[in-house]
Specification:
With 249 residues, the chain is an alpha/beta fold. A six-stranded mixed sheet has the order 5-6-8-9-10-7, with helices on both faces. The protein contains nine helices and eleven strands. Strand 9, helix 8 and strand 10 form a beta-alpha-beta unit. It has two domains: 99 residues, NIF3 (NGG1p interacting factor 3)-like (Udp-n-acetylmuramoylalanyl-d-glutamate--2,6- Diaminopimelate Ligase, Chain: A, domain 1), CATH 3.40.1390.30; 112 residues, 3-Layer(aba) Sandwich (Udp-n-acetylmuramoylalanyl-d-glutamate--2,6- Diaminopimelate Ligase, Chain: A, domain 1), CATH 3.40.1390.30. It starts with a helix and ends in a 7-residue tail after the last strand. It is elongated and about 55 Å long.
Length: 249
């Protein structure tokens, strides 16, 4: 299977054409290569470090959440040139899925987080661009501290909890989606989990009495690429490897 065939499969699997994303996000195949896909490197971010990791472990394709092409047309020079030229020279293809990966009901980042928290009675949640990109659900009653410890164990990263009390209902939108805290409070949820927020979200969480859990932009978005990698291994026997390059943010 070559990269065009695999990209067509991924487009359909992830609903690339149906999902409304950020104005400058480009989902799907970003860099073509030649030959059959032997091994796929899975990464949250496309950066020089993950490109080099992919080359070191003999990947000839990368599947990432944050791709290389953002912000419209720009000249190929500087760091951008280094990325493009290295990938072309090494015959390393690239496929990126942003919001389609966040919100996928089976393979998505939010579903991975929901599974780690053992949520049930799942429903779509968190409106963005006329679509619901997150998940809400219930979990067995747990204290704020107990939830923090559980998440740190699952994600392997520091967790910031703003608020106190017990949690039985929670909304989830991975990445940098703290603005959706308002929707969680309006829905009467005990807590809202995302990656990162701004200073004013602290006050919003306290005043709305909806606990805000900041688990890291990077840490909340590793699950989706891993799920897609497992799917490709099971479906096509393609080797995959997760290329961990945490930002701490």
């Amino acid at each position: 299977m070559d990269i065009l065939q695999l990209s067509h499969y991924l487009d359909n699997l992830l609903g690339i054409k149906e999902v409304k994303d950020s104005p400058n996000a480009m989902n799907g195949l970003q860099v073509q290569n030649t030959g059959d896909i032997k091994k796929v490197g899975l990464a949250v971010d496309l950066c020089m470090a993950t490109i080099e990791k992919a080359i070191t472990v003999d990947c000839n394709m990368m599947f990432v959440h944050h791709g290389m092409l953002w912000g419209g047309v720009k000249p190929i020079r500087g760091n951008f040139y280094e990325k493009v030229s290295t990938m072309m020279r090494e015959n390393l293809g690239l496929y990126s899925a942003h919001l389609p990966l966040d919100m996928h009901p089976v393979l998505g980042n939010n579903k991975a987080l929901a599974d780690q928290l053992e949520l049930y009675e799942l429903e779509p949640f968190g409106e963005y661009g006329g679509q619901k990109i997150g998940i809400k659900g219930r979990l067995d009653r747990i204290s704020a501290e107990g939830l923090r410890i559980k998440l740190e164990d699952k994600l392997g990263s520091p967790i910031k909890v703003i608020g106190s009390g017990e949690v039985q209902t929670i909304g989830i939108v991975s990445g940098g989606a703290a603005d959706i805290l308002t929707q969680a409070a309006e829905a009467g949820l005990n807590a809202y989990l995302t990656g990162e927020g701004s200073n004013h979200h602290y006050h919003e969480a306290i005043e709305s009495q909806c606990m805000l859990i900041l688990a890291g932009h990077y840490a909340t978005e590793t699950g989706g690429v891993k799920s897609v990698g497992k799917h490709l291994e099971e479906q096509f026997g393609i080797k995959t490897e997760f290329l961990d390059y945490p930002t701490g943010i």
